[in-house]
Amino acid sequence: MPELPEVETVRRGLAPILVGHRFAAVEQRRKDLRFPLPAHFAKRLEGRGIEALDRRAKYLLARLDDGEVLVMHLGMSGRFKVDHANGAESAPGSFAQKAAEAPKHEHIVFHLDDGSAVRYTDARRFGYMDLIPADSLDTHPLFIGLGVEPLSKDFTPAWLAGKLKGKKTSIKAALFDQRLIAGLGNIYVCEALFRAGLSPFRSAGTIPTKTGKATAKTIALVAGIKAVLEQAIEAGGSSLRDHARTDGTLGRFQHLFKVYGRTGKPCSRKGCGGTVARAVQNGRSSFYCPTCQR
Question: What is the pLDDT of residue 241?
Answer without folding.
Answer: 47
